[in-house]
Specification:
Layout: H1 4-19, E1 21-22, E2 25-26, H2 27-35, H3 40-43, H4 60-71, H5 77-86, H6 92-108, H7 110-120, H8 133-143, H9 147-153, H10 163-176, H11 183-190, H12 196-205, H13 209-212, H14 217-230, H15 234-245, H16 250-254, H17 256-269, H18 273-283, H19 291-307, H20 311-321, H21 328-345, H22 350-357, H23 368-380, H24 384-397, H25 400-415, H26 421-428, H27 434-443, H28 449-459, H29 478-485, H30 492-506, H31 513-529, H32 533-547, H33 551-557, H34 563-573, H35 577-588, H36 608-620, H37 636-653, H38 658-667, H39 669-678, H40 684-690, H41 694-714, H42 719-726
Antiparallel strand pairs: 1-2
């Protein structure tokens, strides 16, 4: 017995060591490999061994599957097996996405379909209670040509995200097994926008005899048009829809979403036929006509007229459409278009319509650009009394940022005595002195820093940012964390964007606001930690709009990547580091590889021609020769040096005005000089409100506000001190 004991100990030790390994490497090494995105150790194992992934963590399976899927040649059985393991993830989202990935793999490859089907028909399948189990099995049967079995498995629904896949598999399997169903398939395709499941179904049937049959003629033409519109091929979409237009309006009334496709096809390709057709159909409507149909007819007729610059007739159509809007989002969109065309036709004439429709706004922030355009027009044309008339409407119905803007400008109107104090008070109901309005703007916590700081400057106050509290300890959802914990960050963007869209929608449900804001903050912190500055900022925008930012948020919203390089060249060129940080954040959100649609490159978004001219000046003054080996504008050091040098050059050439140099950086120096000369008597801050190009106007404010924030957070400066320098003229 004594002799046997050491052997048992050795055996137990060996078993223990093996249990601590994953695919013949230690768990610790496996985690380190995954973190780096290295999956060679997984690819060296067989598909049947992929279940070992749970020794790392059950939640690692989905993310490892993404990495393996990218590198594994077809048939992707290892990836399929990893996604199978991911079905049992503790994260509901990871489980669902694993199911979607499995569906995709099975739909693309017969070997994968056979492999998964074999596993599902044994007790080895790792998650038999997975909500998409029957859908996955149906897809495997379908891919293997076993259509009757696929139809049987796809017949049920369980309220999961896989129900549409069940519908598609049931309908197409029925066709493939000898059935002929037209109406149900049309219902499936035309109920709403095209999703991944519809794309799959479309590819499956478009080359079949059903698609070209006389019986299926209407559906096939509508489906081709529907699909073409979804990929913005409006010419092709209209060509397909024309073949069923002679059948009258009944088909489009039956499937109202097709009206949106037809409307967009007409809008972007037509010179008037679409408007006439939609108005003819609307004239034939009666009390029994679906209100959604009437909304689409009027709304898209209005959009067609807007496209043709027939603003007055477009306004009439949008106004008629408003009462038929089916939900808050559609009503907001219709009112926005209405105000937009009125503003384009007669800018000042939009005021009574804003007064009429502002009480109906769902999302006040949605209309901030309408109010911004009106503000620019009224200021540029010195319509001071009209501005006072608009102020009470904005005060009651606009978002906090727009309200702060109008309050500040009304304060400046009063301060400059453009109208008597009594008139200010008569229109606004507020003490006519300017400080009362500056205090209103200063108090708006979710307003732009630009207007808060400008107002503080005017009343001798300082903007202070509150510290974060216990609410900042919420952890980011495990599904989002997993991308960074398991080396799959490059796959994360599409999922992160979908998560952000979902949370923005949830913010409208008052009962969820606090928890949603906490989640948004938590994801922003995670992205900041992972140096994804751009997405971190995007997650804090709705937080700012809803309740404002605290100090911890601000450090994320205004980060300092490339600090050494930026501060080095700020000092060399005598540009404020806060201003340079603000410019680069505004231009690129610190993405050194980004290229704009116009061709601007890198951190400070330099146009190649401007960069070449500036690089030549740098060399001429004894600096490095960035042109010698070809200009590398995605290199941070090269880009920041040239960008800061160019900004310093603009400051000198624009009367030593940092404000004008920023406007020139975006809009061009000659254009800025021309604008300023046209209204030379207006104070600089009010002149900024008159800049006719929205991008340039807002650019000046955004960079100024960002510079103030950087000065406050990192350089021990009051925000107002930064503005004193920017507006020092």
């Amino acid at each position: 017995m004594v002799k046997i004991f050491p052997s048992i100990c050795i055996l137990l030790t060996l078993l223990s060591c093996k249990s601590e390994q994953v695919f013949n490497v230690s768990v610790k090494q496996a985690v380190a490999n995954l973190k780096k995105g290295d999956v060679d150790f997984i690819l060296s194992a067989s598909a049947e061994d992929m279940g070992e992934i749970i020794r790392i963590n059950q939640d690692a399976a989905f993310y490892a599957g993404l990495l393996v899927e990218e590198q594994e040649p077809a048939p992707k059985l290892r990836a399929a097996s990893l996604f199978e393991a991911g079905l049992a993830s503790s994260s509901e989202q990871a489980s669902v996405e694993s199911g979607r990935k499995l569906l995709s793999l099975v739909s693309e490859d017969e070997t994968a379909a056979e492999y998964i089907l074999q596993r599902m028909e044994t007790d080895d399948f790792r998650s038999p209670d997975f909500l998409g189990f029957s859908t996955l099995q149906a897809m495997a049967f379908y891919k293997l040509g076993r259509f009757s079995e696929a139809r049987k498995m796809a017949g049920g629904k369980n309220g999961s995200v896989f129900d549409k896949w069940n519908d598609a598999l049931f309908l197409i399997s029925t066709m493939r097994s000898g059935g002929a169903i037209s109406e149900e398939l049309a219902d499936f395709f035309f109920a709403g926008p095209i999703e991944e499941v519809h794309k799959w179904a479309y590819e499956e049937i478009k080359s079949t005899e059903f698609f070209s049959s006389e019986f299926f003629r209407n559906e096939s033409a509508a489906l081709r048009g529907h699909y073409a519109a979804a990929i913005f091929d409006y010419q092709e979409g209209l060509r397909r829809f024309r073949s069923i237009l002679d059948r009258g309006r009944a088909y489009f009334y039956k499937y109202p979403y097709l009206l949106t496709d037809l409307g967009r096809c007409f809008q972007y390709t037509d010179d008037g036929e679409g408007v006439n057709l939609f108005l003819e159909w609307e004239a034939q409507a009666d009390e029994g006509t679906d209100p959604l149909v009437r909304f689409y007819l009027l709304f898209f007729a209005g959009r067609m007229e807007r496209r043709r610059n027939n603003y007055a007739s477009a306004a009439i159509l949008f106004e008629k459409a408003v009462p038929f809007a089916p939900d808050r989002e559609q009503k907001d969109a219709c009112i926005w278009y209405l105000l937009d065309v009125i503003q384009k036709d007669a800018p000042e004439g939009v005021v009574p319509f804003i007064a009429k429709y502002a009480p109906l706004w769902g999302d006040a922030f949605y209309f901030s650009d309408i109010l911004g355009t009106l503000c620019q027009y009224l200021t540029a044309n010195h319509k001071w009394t009209r501005m006072l008339e608009v102020f009470p409407i904005v005060r009651r119905y606009a978002d906090g940022a727009s309200f702060a803007k109008y309050a500040y400008i009304v304060g400046r109107i009063a301060a400059e005595s453009f109208v008597p104090d009594a008139e200010v008070q008569a229109f606004t109901g507020i003490d006519g002195s300017s400080k009362a309005f500056f205090r209103i703007a200063f108090a708006q916590k979710n307003a732009s820093f630009y207007y808060r700081v400008m107002s503080a400057w005017r009343i001798g106050e300082s903007v202070e940012i509150p510290k974060g509290g216990e609410k900042d300890k919420t952890e980011a959802p495990s599904f989002i964390r997993g991308f960074f914990e398991y080396g799959s960050a490059r796959f994360a963007t599409v999922y992160i964007e979908a998560f952000l869209r979902e949370k923005k929608t949830e913010l409208w449900v008052e009962d969820t606001t606090r928890s949603v804001i906490d989640e948004l903050r938590a994801v922003a912190r995670l992205l900041y930690k992972e140096e994804d500055w751009h997405n971190a900022i995007q997650f804090l925008i709705p937080v700012w709009e809803k309740e404002g930012l605290n100090y911890s948020d601000m450090e994320i919203y205004y980060p300092r990547p490339f600090r050494e390089v930026i501060e080095k060249y700020a000092e060399l060129t005598k540009v404020s580091p806060a201003v340079l940080f603000g410019l680069i954040r505004t231009e690129s959100t610190f993405r050194n590889e980004v290229v704009s649609h116009a061709g601007a490159v890198g951190l400070s978004q330099l146009m190649p021609k401007t960069a070449e001219e500036t690089a030549f000046r740098i060399k001429k003054q004894g600096g490095p020769d960035y042109l010698a080996d070809g200009l590398q504008l995605t290199d941070p050091e090269t880009n920041v040096h040239i960008g800061s040098f160019y900004l310093a050059f603009l400051i000198k050439s624009m009367d030593d005005s940092p404000l004008f140099s920023l406007l020139a950086y975006n809009g061009g120096p000659n254009r800025v000089r021309r604008w300023r000369t046209a209204d030379a008597a207006l104070p600089d801050d009010l002149f900024l409100e008159t800049v006719p190009i929205t991008e340039t106007r807002e650019y000046g404010k955004r960079v100024s506000a960002a510079a103030a924030a950087y000065g406050y957070l990192y350089y021990k400066l009051k925000m107002e001190a930064i503005f004193t320098d920017i507006f020092k003229r």
